[in-house]
Each structure stands twice: as structure tokens, then as C-alpha cells.
């Protein structure tokens, strides 16, 4: 310092280098300067690598997966502590279908038993068919058909008509079609049935315009096995089919006669 001059300003110490926060082993000073590490950490390459490592280690949330479709549930109540909404397998569907058939067959058997019980003390008509007011079934020719038509159209024969309906209604059959066919087979012989069809085409008699048609409907509905609410369309459908097959029945009967 020279005389007469101002004192020189004190110099501030140099800034301290940043210390590493990473623990070092092997006797190395834990507070040693880490300027090189800081530069590496601030590098964009190092930051990108660290970001990729964090994604690899599963820090990002996984996408939500949609639940699998729910299996169909059975609508049949299950007992014994089982789940009421358990999946209905193919075997169960087949078993339920079979049970429905058994129930339907049991209902038919019960209807037949009720009918037999009601007829137990009643006289049973001849299996060859009723003979009422000189009408002999089956009708074998068109002249007999015309005579029976005249009897049904006469209002004075209303009681006779009801007797015929009651007699025809006890003819058996396992369903509506068979009952309809069996009643028609009792009324018409094989030869005359071939000369009748539903609409009267090809120079045949039209069954749809005969008085026998409503007689058939009443007899079928009165049968204990057939449904009382059977529609005219259902009975007519089976009657049409029966007349359409009359030619085949006539041919088959002719062959049987020739064979004998």
C-alpha cells in the first residue's frame, strides 16, 4: 500500500463449486465438486434417456381394459342355494325342451283319462259308424252325400244333427289333424272322397259349400282331445289336405283289393 492512495477493494472469494448429492463409496469425499455431473444431468440426451427409463419401469398408468362380455343367464329359478342367474348351458336348454314335451304329453294323457272317465257309464256306438235317420256312414256315393246334405239343411232335423255331432266327436286322434282326418274318414268313403275337393275344381263337389263343413267344425271342437278354441282356418287346412290325398288312398285300396 502506498502512502496517499485509497485502499484497494477487498476481493470476494470465488463461487463455490456445486457439491454432488450422490453418495460416493470407497473413501471418496462425499462433498467433492460435481460440476461435470451437473452438466451431464442438464444434457437433453440424458433427460430423454431418463424419461424413457421411467416409462419402461411402468410409471405411466396402464390403459383400462374393457370387461369381457357377460355370459347369458338362465331364466329358470334354481334351488338348493345355487345362483339364480347361473349361465344356461346347451345341455340345460335341451333338458328344458324335453321337460316341456313331457308336460304337454301328460296334459294330453290327462285329457284322455278324463274323457274315458266321463264315458265309463255311457253306451259306446258301433265302431262302424253311427246310423241315424237312415243315414249310414261312411257315405259311399254322391247320391248318399246329397241325401245327407238335405237332412242337415232341414231345420226339423236339428236334434238329429246334434246326435250326429255327438257321435262323430268321440272319434279319437292324437292331435287336431288326426281328429279331423278320422272324422272325415268316418263320413266319406274312399271312392266318394275322390270326387270332392275344397273349392270344387275339376268338376268335383265343393266341400267348402256343403252343409257337412260346419258339421265337421262342431264335431272336431266337441272332441275332448282337440282344442275347443280351434280356429276354422286350422280345421279347414287339415280338411283340404285330406281331400287332396283322397286319390292316393283310392289307388292304395284298389291295389289291396287286387292283391287279395
Automatic annotation (TrEMBL):
Residues 132-212 form the DUF4806 domain. Transmembrane segments: none annotated. Pfam families: DUF4806. Residues 1-83 are annotated as: Disordered. This is DUF4806 domain-containing protein. It comes from Eleginops maclovinus.
Amino acid at each position: 500500500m502506498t502512502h496517499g492512495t485509497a485502499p484497494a477493494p477487498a476481493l470476494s472469494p470465488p463461487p463455490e463449486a456445486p457439491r454432488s448429492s450422490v453418495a460416493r463409496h470407497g473413501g471418496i469425499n462425499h462433498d467433492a465438486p460435481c460440476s461435470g455431473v451437473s452438466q451431464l444431468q442438464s444434457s437433453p440426451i440424458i433427460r430423454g434417456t431418463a424419461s424413457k427409463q421411467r416409462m419402461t419401469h411402468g410409471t405411466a398408468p396402464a390403459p383400462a381394459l374393457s370387461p369381457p362380455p357377460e355370459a347369458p343367464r338362465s331364466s329358470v329359478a334354481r334351488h338348493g342355494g345355487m345362483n339364480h342367474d347361473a349361465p344356461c348351458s346347451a345341455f340345460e336348454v335341451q333338458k328344458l325342451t324335453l321337460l316341456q314335451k313331457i308336460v304337454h304329453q301328460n296334459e294330453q294323457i290327462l285329457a284322455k283319462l278324463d274323457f274315458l272317465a266321463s264315458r265309463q257309464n255311457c253306451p259306446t256306438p258301433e265302431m262302424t259308424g253311427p246310423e241315424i235317420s237312415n243315414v249310414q256312414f261312411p257315405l259311399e256315393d254322391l247320391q248318399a252325400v246329397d241325401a245327407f246334405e238335405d237332412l242337415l239343411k232341414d231345420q226339423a232335423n236339428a236334434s238329429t244333427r246334434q246326435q250326429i255331432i255327438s257321435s262323430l266327436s268321440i272319434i279319437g286322434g292324437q292331435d287336431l289333424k288326426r281328429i279331423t282326418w278320422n272324422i272325415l274318414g268316418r263320413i266319406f268313403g274312399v271312392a266318394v272322397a275322390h270326387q270332392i275337393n275344397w273349392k270344387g275344381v275339376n268338376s268335383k263337389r265343393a266341400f267348402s259349400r256343403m252343409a257337412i263343413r260346419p258339421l265337421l267344425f262342431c264335431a272336431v271342437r266337441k272332441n275332448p282331445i282337440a282344442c275347443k278354441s280351434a280356429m276354422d282356418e286350422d280345421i279347414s287346412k287339415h280338411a283340404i289336405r285330406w281331400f287332396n290325398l283322397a286319390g292316393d288312398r283310392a289307388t292304395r285300396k284298389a291295389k289291396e283289393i287286387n292283391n287279395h
